[in-house]
Amino acid sequence: MSNVGNKVKVKYFGSEYEGILLESSDKNMHLLKLTNGYNVGLPRKGSKVEVLGKANLGLKANTLLITKNKSLPNVSLISTGGTIASHVDYKTGAVHPMTKPADLLGKIPELKKISNISVSAPMSIFSEEMNPEHWSKIAGFVARELNKDEIRGAVVTHGTDTLHYTAAALTFALEGLSKPVAIVGGQRSSDRGSFDGGMNLICGVHYAISDIAEVATVLHGTSSDDYCIANRGTKVKKLHTSKRDAFRPINTVPLAKIYPNGKLEKHNGYELRHSRKIKVKSKFESKVALIKYYPGMSPDILKCYEDYKGIIIEGTGLGHVATTTWLEPLTKLIKKGIFVGMTSQADYGRVDPYVYSTGRALTNHGVVYLEDMLSETAYVKLSWVLGQTNNIEKVRHLMVTNLRGELSTKSHPNAFLY
Amino acid sequence: MSNVGNKVKVKYFGSEYEGILLESSDKNMHLLKLTNGYNVGLPRKGSKVEVLGKANLGLKANTLLITKNKSLPNVSLISTGGTIASHVDYKTGAVHPMTKPADLLGKIPELKKISNISVSAPMSIFSEEMNPEHWSKIAGFVARELNKDEIRGAVVTHGTDTLHYTAAALTFALEGLSKPVAIVGGQRSSDRGSFDGGMNLICGVHYAISDIAEVATVLHGTSSDDYCIANRGTKVKKLHTSKRDAFRPINTVPLAKIYPNGKLEKHNGYELRHSRKIKVKSKFESKVALIKYYPGMSPDILKCYEDYKGIIIEGTGLGHVATTTWLEPLTKLIKKGIFVGMTSQADYGRVDPYVYSTGRALTNHGVVYLEDMLSETAYVKLSWVLGQTNNIEKVRHLMVTNLRGELSTKSHPNAFLY
Hints:
By secondary structure, the first copy, chain A, is of the alpha/beta class. Chain A folds into 3 domains: 7-53, SH3 type barrels, CATH 2.30.30; 74-280, L-asparaginase, N-terminal domain (Rossmann fold, 3-Layer(aba) Sandwich), CATH 3.40.50.1170; 288-399, 3-Layer(aba) Sandwich (Rossmann fold). Chain A is 22% helix and 25% strand. Chain A has an 8-stranded mixed β-sheet with strand order 9-6-10-12-13-14-17-18, with helices on both faces. Chains A and B meet through strand 4, helix 3, strand 20, helix 6 and helix 7 of A and strand 4, helix 3, strand 20, helix 6 and helix 7 of B.
């Protein structure tokens, strides 16, 4: 029987922890909310749980119901988990996913002045647990919702850890995207004063009813609550572990600034909303790797990737590795039919094989230089491309073809450290 | 017999390339400077070289000799290769390392107004070829020079690709550093109008005669030629593939701004110059890995690291991986006595195992969270620590102890995207 919500004392190897037992995403762990607000995880194995008090889990019937307002646009919210899509029940300390529209509206009443929101929750997981199968599932949900005539746009809530990877995945999987998709997360949980998920959701809904038919991350643009920035799903990275404005555009500027009052300042070219149906191409290949190179890295590790279909090397500078030791084993992989692409661990800028002999040697041997594509986007794109075709020539061609704004011929002058 | 400097035509699988044959760092490749300025590398195997014209390699005896000026400080320049330490001979197109002081002074006459410079060149390689053995060698050279009473400081010239890794390596290897060490590179070669190496060298020499006894990277602070920034060797990353101001401080601000006229604005606390001798601790362990995590990454890859002594995981967000699949194999490695440290692929901020159950589970199983240490620095530090001791408890202790400014308890408010 579950003790979730109960006040408990957990004994674990001589230490005692008192708190409220939370729902744990890891079935091998107890998750406990301590009185100091921190959550601790304790392995079930070796833990002894003593119940100190019973939970009061009965949620009050929320009086805020979705009263559909015909003058407002309809937005579909797809909840996948993460900090933003949870709320802390102050009676029990338990973290609940906000799967009930009433929960959501109760938390952020402004939302119902902007749109009618329907909620679905295909999963509820920490975003570090996301993998290509989850991307497929989310893409399917989003397309199903957006292909309903009455839906203006979608908002996906997601943990921030890998939010940018999922943003890229949805961008590729949703072909002919006709409506806006905002991916929204929160860096601070809703039991903290600095909770950012509320404003991000409001801005996300404003984005979802806009005319920008692109997948974009929508989160704080500054460390204050001034505005959010919408960044193209293929051109964004989480650059800070905890700041609310952690998501920054790379080699470009945001698509738009979005103020909580609905004001939308556009800063970039974008795809326009249209009425054609979206095609879902949600197959991702799982035998794809992203390998960050470092000085002294032994090429022996490449032997472990011989059964992979594709590899992105996050090289140094303009796209380099030590060719004296790496050229031969990389060439071997390429000759086996494995795609090898090159990006840079310098976040900004573009790789270029023509400046130094190192790059030239690599490109001559079949390593494909991926211009100004982010490493994370390149990994996602390669997984997606290999899900669509096994023809290596097609793969090589598609990887250097700009499909979803992931490649740009020149950088915006204000892009560096935007 | 070498054809370096000769005008040649190289035939390679049906294509013909005409240009000046350059010195190649890769013994399997011909390196050719085409008339458009680009360098191409062509595999020796399968290439046919036809000499079109003989080189004129005889360097003119340079009239600029080092006339030692007793009123100026003495600086030791250690050249390791890379774009900055090369110059293009316009007669031949060949790239030569600047190992002769006269070459250097001839290029940047301002230098001899600031200091008397002695030059040594322990190696001449592209920086992507650097490995821990090179770090040891450079550290030995730097210490030998700095332990001479008459030397005020050192300037190391280095390719920019892995300059920040070497900066961290020297920081750890030079214990009790008593004098400044500037690591200087160039993003643009000296045959381009935007050549940055000259100003970087001038600023590097100004740094080397300052009172800051730290290893610092010294490169452009802006995309113009206004000033350089000196960044602590353990807190700096190359964030752009090609911009001249690519090297940025992470989680801190620069140690100093340095203007080419010698003006030095200090922005940060630093170690002060002293007269004690430097101890060289230049042993680095090579069985150390840096692994960047990505969604869907199979933990099977960890099997390839079972003979390693230490691993840095570049996790997501606050320092996470998918514990559902990774916790067990990571625990296995840790039980074998392999050190596993956690950093974040979000460049800025700090990892924290106490916010979510994921982090708690990892830390409970022995993964060591490395605060606000850069992944690159963590890799270098772990290689160095394991070079000093095999005692795993000592390793765990040293990795979370601030030895060279690599860990800070709080971030500077202006640090993000500085």
